[in-house]
Amino acid sequence: MTIQTQPLSINEIQKAADIIKAGGLVAFPTETVYGLGANALDEAAVKKIYAAKGRPSDNPLILHVLDIDGLSSCVEAVPQTALKLIAKFCPGPITMILNKSKNVPYATTGNRDTVAVRIPAHEVARRLIELAGVPIAAPSANTSGRLSPTTAAHVLADMHGRIDAVLCGDACSVGIESTIIDLSSGLPILLRPGTITKTQIESVLGVKINQSAATLADSVAPGMKYKHYAPDAPMYIIRGEPHKVAEYINRRISESGLPAERVGILTSEESAGFYTCGHVINVGSIKNLEDVARGIYAALHRFNEAGVEIIFSESFRHTEVGLSIMNRLEKAAGNNIIDI
Ligand code: TXA
Ligand code: MG
Prior knowledge:
By secondary structure, the protein is an alpha/beta fold. It has helices spanning 10-21, 43-53, 68-74, 80-89, 123-132, 152-159, 198-205, 213-220, 242-256, 289-306, 320-332, and strands spanning 2-3, 26-28, 35-39, 62-64, 94-99, 114-118, 136-137, 165-167, 179-182, 189-192, 235-239, 263-267, 279-282, 310-314, 337-339.
């Protein structure tokens, strides 16, 4: 079933909530990416998420709750660090790892004693949680290893026939997955960078988070060890001075013998004019990396839809939101990086 009227009426969200209460799966919009939701407290329902995504059972899920009360019911205790981050950033695109309460089944946490919880900002997500009356476990609504969906059409193209309903809302405004911060032991650890940055978190908590996000993410957030965010075509990130990067890509296209429209180019607004051919997607200005973050999965989905045979992407700066953008692009490229 596709629940597709826009804007979504309360009746439609109620139908979706009823499916969740009955142990079914509903894809729904959040501000980051679309989630694939089930009742987080219902072991059988949660197992359906793993089956529908083809997700390894040791890769834990994020619980979506409305507020601090909802969060408290999923965790053993809410530490001061969590309270500070909630006050500053929630509802919003940040996930906290805390010690789980007995309510939360091990099927939801991939057998861990910790649980990931987030308070989303998206109105439809919030209504759905409210009407379902339970925490909603929701990974990104894509087959494991594929790109995260930022529109309902992406979800339908990937998951149709394997889930009970899709709540079709607008395109996601953040466009990449939430920042994940582990608060379960003394020292906060950034497990996945997002649009809420390490620097912002450090200034709220008043402590330095020294660890490199990339290194820790590979060892600590189980999901990060799997191949992630991959478009259909092989992808290369080209690093260097913008003019030279474009020159290199233009040359590769002419040497490849491929029809130009079969080559995807992911570029910033500043460099878009340098390309003489190819399927060029301009994801926005390097002066506004939030726009770029919003655009990258959407661009990679468009390359899939266009059936490009190879993708070249420019590199963005590795600081703040740029770090999160490059984390996703480097995974999409399977770390194929060419320095020129
Ligand atoms: O923005 C988001 O967070 C989206 C939307 C739908 O809310 N969800 C999302 O979920 O990105 P997913 O499953 O695609 O990514 C969750 C990540 C995985 O890398 C997983 O390993 C990690 O969170 N994770 C979940 N529980 C954890 C835990 N207890 N300890 C460490 N990492 C955990
Ligand atoms: Mg995911």
